[in-house]
Amino acid sequence: MKKSVCNLTLLVMALLLVSCASTPPGTTDTGSGAATPQSSEAASGKDQDESSAARPPGQPASPPAQQQQNTIRKGSGVFVQGTGTGAGNGYAEGDGVTLNFEQASLPEFLRVVFESILKENYLLAPGINGVVTLHTTRPVTADTVLPIVEAVLEQNGAALIRDEGMYKVLPLG
Prior knowledge:
alpha+beta
């Protein structure tokens, strides 16, 4: 009796394993339990009319994601953003600006940045306040300071707008 229960358990486990098996890439399931290799034209998504004609009626077309997955495309070799030696990452190679603010008020942070660093006019809307803690470990370029200011303002619920030669700091929304 124990032997037949053990054999039955092994048979059920084997059946479960077989039912969970998937078809390997580059093959299609014909519905009869046998997997057949796909042609290279069908795998690359070319000539879909012929591949749909070879498909049995009632069989759904292969999903577009599978067709794109099997397609190889050559790139142009041109990178979107080059790998620089420091100029492209915002860090200054020579003279730059180091920002060190510890629990500074947002209006004080903006005064220092716009008056001392950027030397630009700015207008601060009423009700703009917050606390800024910011430390740059290496000097950054002057071009990088403005995006840093925008990030600090976003964290404090404000936005920076350039209007008529002046920067305006306004609340979001």
